[in-house]
Amino acid sequence: MMYKHDCDKCVPLGEYKGMDLYFCNDITGPTVIARYSDFGPDYKSGLCFADFDEHLSKARKISIEKGLI
């Protein structure tokens, strides 16, 4: 993984086109994350956006393949 990520509940899914991908299932429910720097707010997330975003779609696909969702 290329960037620092501070959530210990997140499952790393690998790197894809310059971003680190994660799956997280915390108290707010399952989601996918694509991080693009070490700076805290530099990420995008949301299963609801996976149909519209290439990185989140890839994270969802990997999450499904791994049986996480």
SSE string: EEEEH
Question: Low-confidence parts, pLDDT < 50 over ≥5 residues?
Answer: none
Q: Helical amount among residues, as a percent range? A: 10-25%
User: How many individual helices?
Assistant: 1
Rounded to the nearest angstrom, the distance between the terminal CA atoms is 21 Å
Search tags:
69 residues; four-stranded antiparallel sheet; alpha+beta; single chain; 35% strand; 1 helix
Description:
This protein has 69 residues and is an alpha+beta fold. The chain contains one helix and four strands, in the order ββββα. It has one helix at residues 54-65, and strands at residues 11-16, 19-26, 29-35, 43-45. Strands 1-2-3-4 form a four-stranded antiparallel sheet, covered by helices on one side. The protein starts with 10 loop residues before the first strand and ends with a helix. The model has no long low-confidence stretch (mean pLDDT 94).
